[in-house]
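Form P-L/3: holo structure prediction, ligand 3-methyl-2-oxobutanoic acid.
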Amino acid sequence: MSSQPTFRTPTDPGRLPMTLPLLHEKKRLGEPIVMVTAYDYPSARAAEAAGVDLVLVGDSAATTVLGYNATTPVELTDMLVLTRAVRRGLNTPLLIGDLPFGSYEVSDEQAITSAMRMVKEGGCEVVKLEGGAEAPASRARAIVGAGIPVMGHVGLTPQTSTALGGWKAQGRTAVAAARIAAEAVALQDAGCFALVFEAIPAAVTEELMGLIEIPVIGIGAGAATDGQVLVFHDLLGIRDGLGPRFVKRYANLQEEMNDGVGAFAEDVRARRYPGPEHTYSVDPAELAELQELLADRYGG
Ligand code: KIV
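OUTPUT (holo model):
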């Protein structure tokens, strides 16, 4: 990369752990909120080093790291493993655990149980769930009532993208946009501390922002939101293809990984690796003794 941003480190004395009051203060002051996804220790360390505010262990893990072609197959138990790994790599960003499909829809009790597992076993501080219709808003209210802060998610909600007509922008008609507005307000009323707006036309987002008092983090929702989130693998190019149109790519790590593994394979085949600098030494006297020992024992 040509220009290196100045990373703040975990030891930066000026950096306080992100809390819900600090997040709301950022909104009040109009300071952009930065959120990324992470799925393991190295991605968490990158988020920490960049000084981001919020880290989401997204159920996008299903596609980015587990190789599924949708987010629906990922299990709560998968999310717990990934969340624990991210937890080990983070000090200051607020850690959000995504509730996967099937872990909260059945009842408020199921939602509370899953959210508690994410907090107790995964180590996240808050959870996120998708959708703002009656049932998801009820789940959000129940989890908040159990003492776990909830981030809502409206617009394109990948877990139910089939029902939404596919993986595409939402709210492109007045009726559809009004439905998103109603869902966002319902989640706010249910006590959510923040919302994600995904794949919503920028002009619609601008209209909706006036209705929402809690921080709104956008992904493909234009510039009017209080912050922006991108999927780690999209922004760093750890994927095949370009991804959605809203992604800005800051690196091409998949290419670099392919090149690196390819170069290793070539070196091994050409016997260029390992070189003397990659091997361990042994005392010549010990080696001579070993040779005698082997000759005695095995002949030759
Ligand atoms: O799972 C995820 O990565 C998400 C983000 C796109 C917000 O929900």
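COMMENT: Strands lie at 33-37, 54-57, 94-98, 126-128, 150-155, 194-198, 216-219, 227-230.
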